[in-house]
Amino acid sequence: MNELIVLFGTESGNAELVADDISAALQEKGTAVRVADMEDYAVDDLGEADMVVLVVSTYGEGDLPDTAAPFHDALVEAKPDLSGVRFAAFGLGDSTYETYNLGVATLRATFTALGATQIGETGYHDADSGLNPSDVAVAWVSTVLAVATPS
Amino acid sequence: MDARTSAATVPADCPEVTGFLPWTDPRFRIDPYPYYARALAEAPIMRDDADGSFVLTRYEDLMHYGRLPSIRIAPEWKKAGAWRVLLDMALGHDEPGHTRLRRQTSKWFTPKRVREWAETTAGFTDRLLDGLGPDGLVDGSDLAVEVTHRTVCHVLDVPADDHDGVRRLMRQAMPILSARPAPRDFERAEEALDELRRRTAALIELKRANPGEGLLDSLLGAQDRGEMSAAEVLATTLFFYVVGHMDATYLICSGLHLFTREPELLDAFRAHPDRHEAFVAELARFDAPEPVVTRTTTEDLVIHGVHVPAGSSLRLMLGAANHDPAVFDNPDEFDFTRPPEQTRNLTFSFGSHGCQGRLLAEAEIRVVFERISARYSRVELTAEPDMRNTDASRHYYTLPLRLHS
Ligand SMILES: Cc1cc2nc3c(=O)[nH]c(=O)nc-3n(C[C@H](O)[C@H](O)[C@H](O)COP(=O)(O)O)c2cc1C
Q: What are the annotated GO cellular component locations (chain A) (predicted)?
């Protein structure tokens, strides 16, 4: 693989930390990784990476976090062709909400509708589980990448 | 008999709360846990004849009823005397105002920022410890108040020269949140909040004259862009300024006190750096500084067979739920090796109103213990601590210690 982009959208910083930790774990294994904030990322650039790892939380009442909403709006508006894009998706939420992890579901649906191909299963962190989000995410990303790069 | 299944036929039992949780009994205020245990086992819902509120203790019930969309927080702060000032900040709002205001401060308490703040806490702690005499005598609560207040002032970017004054005013303002406030508690809280409002206004004025890069600067920026009102900036600033030291200090004291009673815990803490976060989480579960939150119902509910009319207050006993045997094995034991699903606690409240400073508080507590355990072998109690608790807020007035090198 060439380069992998970990794109995060966060409200209180957990997704940012998870993105950093995913990136560190992948770099340790020799994968070239770049971390970017959805807030500073132009949707037109989505084609440039071999693979995009989306890491996003849910906020408000099942909404995307503040830093991800404009990115999502831009996708919906500009409708870029993502048929060349492969992505994996990880959501952070809290299962005590009825709207558990709706944020990542929204983003995933939009990516798929624009032609992107999802690799592996969507990963989830549940704040109610008592588990560390980065531990869950790093374990998840290694199974996803095993799918992405069959040996 | 299960109250839920019998609800339709038998009018469920709803005992008066003070038979289980005697709010003003000094024994209850010092150690509520045996009382909570009995309520958890025998009385899942209780009524309070004094004010018509209903009291819940079980973890599952708090998580369910405390998070119903029909449950509101704002009416409770309207009734909270001088604390109605919080109606102008996130904690006093229901949606959508809550999320709008919470967003103005969330980026200041992210895991990344908190790493940065924790380093300043470590610096403040070391400086205070450097200043101790050769006898190692220190008051644990003074130490904790000073480092935590300095840290939150650093986040706000305001002067931190008055931790003692802020603590004194908060001691005056907190008793009103009890289920049984005394009449003069209202006056004393008004007085304290008036003074805290004046001080906060002065901080804002000072900040306008000397802009910087702190949380308060960011709030004032939001005000200038029309995203927050002046009253919202004042209330939000006041809140962080006055609570920054409070519950974090209680938990630091509670941990230091525990180290004096069980010295091997200090050795275990030192020996297991990978368990430091779990240790702090267990400390928070073990003894919550503010063991109760209240909410107002806006629809009729039937809870364990008991009819709870719309407009009732619910007292949600976080401190009891933290010791619910349905969730925690040996709930009254301090055990920092619990499995992940038993490290959950409701001490920082839950749901969307969960404490925004939680990560900061947890980091501060951890850092103070890390500095002390790195520099000292043992923590000794030199006199009985002076604790002044109500049913709703726990507080160390003094915690006289000797730190042994
Ligand atoms: C005000 C608020 C609203 C939330 N709403 C939801 C929600 O609707 N669904 C969900 O699954 N999680 C919800 N959560 C939980 C967060 O998604 C969870 O805490 C996550 O770890 C936050 O990640 P972040 O720091 O990257 O934003 C909410 C949290 C807060 C504080």
A: cytosol
B35 and A CB contact within 8 Å: no
Q: What is the pLDDT of residue B361?
A: 98
CB B110 within 8 A of CB A12: yes
Model pLDDT for residues B199-248, shown as the tens digit of each residue: 999 999 999 999 999 999 999 999 999 999 999 999 999 999 999 999 99
Ligand 1 site residues (CB inside 6 A) read A 10-15, 57-62, 65, 92-94, 97, 99-102, 127; B 99, 352, 354
Chain B residues closer than 8 Å to A131 by CB: 340
Q: Is B81 left (phi over 0), alpha (psi -120 to 50) or beta?
A: left
pLDDT over 80 at B338, yes or no:
yes
- Indicate if the pLDDT at residue B296 is higher than 50: yes
Pocket test for ligand 1, best of A16, A38, A58 (most atoms within 8 A of CB): A58
Atom of ligand 1 nearest to the CA of A62: 8
Write the single-letter amino acid at B190: E
Domain count, chain B: 1
If pLDDT is split at 50, 70 and 90, which confidence band does B54 have?
very high
Query: Between chains, do A128 and B103 touch, taking CB under 8 Å as contact?
Result: no
Interface check for A128 against chain B (CB to CB < 8 A): the answer is yes
- This complex has an ipTM of 0.85
Strands A86-93 and A51-57: parallel
The string of pLDDT tens digits covering residues B13-28 is: 899 999 999 999 999 9
- DSSP characters over A79-116: ----TT-EEEEEEEE-TTSTTTTHHHHHHHHHHHHTT-
Mean pLDDT, rounded, for A78-91: 95
Q: What's the pLDDT at B18?
A: 97
Whole-prediction pTM: 0.93
Q: Is B7 inside any structural domain?
A: no
The answer to whether the CB atoms of A14 and B110 lie below 8 A apart is: yes
> Closest to B344 (Cβ–Cβ): which among A13, A14, A128?
A128
Look at residue B170 and give its three-state secondary structure. Answer: helix
Q: Does A135 touch chain B (CB under 8 A)?
A: no
Give the residue from B164, B190, B165, B166 showing the smallest Cα distance to B176. B190
Tell me the domain boundaries of chain A.
4-148
Of all residues in chain B, the percent with pLDDT exceeding 70 is: 97
- Is there a domain that residue B322 lies in? yes
Rounded distance between C-alpha atoms, residue A123 and residue A135, angstroms: 12
Q: Is residue B334 part of a domain?
A: yes
Q: Residue B228 corresponds to which tokens in the numbers above?
A: 């927050």
What pLDDT does residue B12 have?
A: 66
- Which CATH architecture describes the domain A4-148? 3-Layer(aba) Sandwich (3.40)
Distance B392 CA to ligand 1 centre (A): 27
**Residue among B350, B316, B385, B249 nearest B36 (CA):** B316
Mean pLDDT across B35-46: 97
Residue B367: give the domain boundaries.
17-404
